[in-house]
Amino acid sequence: xxxxxxxxxxxxxxxxxxxxxxxxxxxxxxxxxxxxxxxxxxxxxxxxxxxxxxxxxxxxxxxxxxxxxxxxxxxxxxxxxxxxxxxxxxxxxxxxxxxxxxxxxxxxxxxxxxxxxxxxxxxxxxxxxxxxxxxxxxxxxxxxxxxxxxxxxxxxxxxxxxxxxxxxxxxxxxxxxxxxxxxxxxxxxxxxxxxxxxxxxxxxxxxxxxxxxxxxxxxxxxxxxxxxxxxxxxxxxxxxxxxxxxxxxxxxxxxxxxxxxxxxxxxxxxxxxxxxxxxxxxxxxxxxxxxxxxxxxxxxxxxxxxxxxxxxxxxxxxxxxxxxxxxxxxxxxxxxxxxxxxxxxxxxxxxxxxxxxxxxxxxxxxxxxxxxxxxxxxxxxxxxxxxxxxxxxxxxxxxxxxxxxxxxxxxxxxxxxxxxxxxxxxxxxxxxxxxxxxxxxxxxxxxxxxxxxxxxxxxxxxxxxxxxxxxxxxxxxxxxxxxxxxxxxxxxxxxxxxxxxxxxxxxxxxxxxxxxxxxxxxxxxxxxxxxxxxxxxxxxxxxxxxxxxxxxxxxxxxxxxxxxxxxxxxxxxxxxxxxxxxxxxxxxxxxxxxxxxxxxxxxxxxxxxxxxxxxxxxxxxxxxxxxxxxxxxxxxxxxxxxxxxxxxxxxxxxxxxxxxxxxxxxxxxxxxxxxxxxxxxxxxxxxxxxxxxxxxxxxxxxxxxxxxxxxxxxxxxxxxxxxxxxxxxxxxxxxxxxxxxx
Length: 742
Description:
Blueprint lengths: L5 E4 L7 H5 L2 H7 L3 E4 L3 E3 L9 E7 L5 H14 L3 E6 L3 E3 L7 H9 L18 E6 L9 E3 L2 E4 L2 E3 L10 H6 L3 E5 L3 H4 L4 E2 L2 E6 L5 H16 L5 E4 L8 H11 L4 E4 L16 E2 L2 H9 L16 H16 L1 H8 L9 H10 L11 H14 L5 H8 L5 H25 L20 H14 L4 E2 L10 H9 L4 H14 L5 H14 L4 H15 L10 H16 L1 H31 L3 E5 L20 H12 L11 H16 L6 E2 L2 E2 L6 E6 L2 E6 L2 H6 L7 E3 L4 E4 L4 E4 L2 E3 H4 L5 E6 L1
Parallel strand pairs: 1-2, 1-18, 2-5, 5-14, 7-11, 14-15, 15-16, 17-18
Antiparallel strand pairs: 3-4, 6-13, 8-9, 9-10, 12-13, 19-21, 20-23, 21-22, 22-27, 23-26, 24-25, 24-27
């Protein structure tokens, strides 16, 4: 069953499946068709996200186990809803070895373990390295307790016949070696999820591993427990295409979407899935509300291309050095190709290829790298990297995806701070806005090729919420005012780095009012991710303290706080207009829209874990009841108007056949300030660039050339008629409209 719309819920121990079941009535009233859950297989104890699965053969008892899943499904079915579940085929959680019986077995028995083939381990490089020891710790800090090797709270197995002697002597006889945490990035000999040593890559391409890890998800589909699956991080797999074909064969009729990040202009390969999880749609929709003319007013101090490339080089050589070493070991010992592999990965224009699909990207990377470094042995690498069956080509494809994710998403996005509304997963910081004609072309392609793919505005992985980006988009229209405000604020307590100062003060403008602790937590994470003046591996307290002093000034300096509040009050209404426009467009454009938990009201969340804060569903239920009783809310801080737009658009999706896609003509002096499109008998209108609209004096005699003679406006419950209607009449209450032909 293809969902009409999904609602993402971060199921976890403090909001378990029974709590999710309690949402069934609210979600049905809201208008979605499916609850879309975070991973529910057995994760590490206390996991707040579920992506660190330790036992893929059972539902997590920490969120209620199988009985709670049955209750959740019963509650959803009772309200006519279905279930979509996130699954994690790429890796398993191994941070606490005793929680993962497969990993425990491998540590105990080494290559002889029946689970040795589950994990992507390079046994040729000696014992399995476990990077857990502190800087000053060593064998003397080990102990033997209850037949296990212990390092403080960490527990490790002891192989049969190796338990005699001191803890250090016992340790030296094991199939694993406990080493300093600092050796992980350089020396680790098992594939990880990106640079996280606590998430070990699994060899899901092996039939027996696939069967074991997918037994539960396949059962959910076969028994009608779930209607669809979201596939986490397919780019990490050895053979994503083969994996998806195997999954499709085991889940006939299921709705499957993949967490595939597409670069601007990149097309999803012809895979047996409904589409992506929607980051491509996010870029297109949010870009509609950024003024392309702002590009000239926001000159960058540095090149985006070089910032991204530098981040990728650092990721390849520092964070992913162990993976790079594994690649080099696939070449003859007398050939030094390390630098050449780094250059190619840094020049790769997309996350990865899927040979033979995407071979043109390898060609592009080779051309760029040869031009930059003609001295390197690319001729030796090229034939092997073009061969889909060559182990070097297979692992290089896995490598480039990790390099892009760590080097761009988690590094460059925090360094290149010209205009951070563009710095989003799947975003293109060098493309300032998306003109309506570009959006219409993309939506038309989506309607033709991937009509059932997911669309999104906020996710558990977005760097900032849709509403924060919507408010920041206003800055593209008022660059002079923003530059002046930024200068005033930073002068009060300067941040000792101009790029990070731009990130910090844009964040303040986008998320204000925000608590001091949330802002400190965000700024600390952002500064360490940028890894310029401080980092996770080597925190610099001097720089971090300077950043915190700047933040403290906001709350201590009344004049500064008042200035920030006044500036936000100036842009807040325009931000709300953008947010409503984004929401309406996303909910009615081609694709299956997802609503991230809580975002049916205004949401000021920043990057995780900030976006996993509890959601007040009681407030949302109460507001929805008022709306259904006939209340037309004002556009104010309550966010009720966003809930109105969300629920009415969802119900229209549910009750109407939204076929095709076609732009609707708008004519007149303010035509550039509206995006309008038709799907079936439904027309969506959204205001864009509201500051410019205000400056030009409003809509004046701008008209909508309606293909319908009679239609109702769903949000305000009014009727209109005629082939040409003044936009100002339609949008005289809200900046968006939802028209249904009668």
